[in-house]
Amino acid sequence: MQKKLHIKKGDNVVVVTGNSRSQKGKVLEVVRRTNRAIVEGVNMVKKHTKPNAANPQGGIIEQEAPIHISNLMLVDPKTGEATRIGRKEDANGKLVRYSKKSGEEIK
Q: Three-state SS for 72?
């Protein structure tokens, strides 16, 4: 069974450590098998490509590389700062994520 992650697709996150430190972005994809996430505009790498139907010229393209989720923290919806998250039940009995800093629910 896979471990439950604190980050989901569509979340706004900030990079805590590494070369892309303090950059913010939206999570485009979460790779649960390797505990990594692809974040928009973060950890950009240059990739050499052969000519193909999508890119007939070929050449060097820049794209996002996966970054380990331990290096990411969610952005607090209220303050815009990095925050840890917790889980609690809402009024309907459904488990929701909330910000530990402001206590606000994360959608």
A: strand
Query: Model confidence over 9-57: pLDDT tens digits?
Result: 999 999 999 999 999 999 999 999 999 999 999 999 999 999 999 889 9
Token pair listed for 8: 């989901």
Which pTM was predicted? 0.85
User: Are residue 52 and residue 11 in the same domain, yes or no?
Assistant: yes
Domain count along the chain:
2
Burial class of 43 by CB neighbour count within 10 A (0 to 12, 13 to 18, 19+) = buried
Do 20 and 41 belong to one domain?
Answer: yes
What CA–CA distance (Å, rounded) separates 43 from 69? Answer: 13
* 1 token code pair: 């069974």
Task: Please check whether residues 80 and 62 belong to one and the same domain.
Answer: no
pLDDT value at residue 2: 74
